[in-house]
Each structure stands twice: as structure tokens, then as C-alpha cells.
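[Meeting: bench + compute handoff]

Bench side (C.D.) handed over the final construct sequence. Compute side (W.E.) agreed to return the predicted structure before the next meeting so the bench team could plan truncations. Sequence as handed over:
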Amino acid sequence: QVQLVESGGGLVQAGGSLRLSCAASGLAFGNYDMGWFRQAPGKEREFVATIRWSGRSTEYADSVKGRFTVSRDNAKNTVYLQMNSLKSDDTAVYYCAARFPLRNDYAYWGQGTQVTVSS
């Protein structure tokens, strides 16, 4: 049974930082690309960042480039999202997801963690 469990969310002031973690189990973590997504109230879920299975390639949404950094530790089956210079627009539920390489769809999703940025 695959499980992705996010943690690290919370309430932070604008300009602050948070680091989200996503611990994976039940899958060969090192074989999967990992992504971060978010969904704000009343909005559709949107892509935030992704990191390839090897950790050697990353992609970011334009809205977070230069502020967020995705990384992974395959020995710990964990992917991270370091979020700096947070803005009120970053307020959302953040989800991690796993995708087998060369596939377009993310097969596994976590339950999400709330990030609230106060202005």
C-alpha cells in the first residue's frame, strides 16, 4: 500500500519560510519522479514543482521560481519543498505526488498539508 504523508505546514507571516516534507512508503521511491501541487480555496489544484527520480532535474511554476526549492533524499524516501519569501498568494493546501518516469499522470497522492501565509 502506497502512502505519501506530508508534514511541515502551518501559519507563517509574509516573508517567512517553511519547509514541507513528504515521506513515502510502499513504493520504490528512487524510481519515481515527485511533484508538489497546491490548491487554494475556490481555485483549481496547480503545479508547484517537480524533481526527477535522480534528483538531477527540477522544474518550477513561474509563480514560485527563485523562492521555492524542491529536493529529495532517496535514502530516506522523502521529498522536500523549501519555501522562502512566502506571500499571501502561497496560502493553500500543499500535496505531494509520485509519478513513474515518462508518464504524464501522477499515480499517488498525499493527503495534503495546510500552509497559511498572513499578510
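W.E. noted at the follow-up: The chain has no helices and eleven strands. C.D. will use this when planning the next construct.
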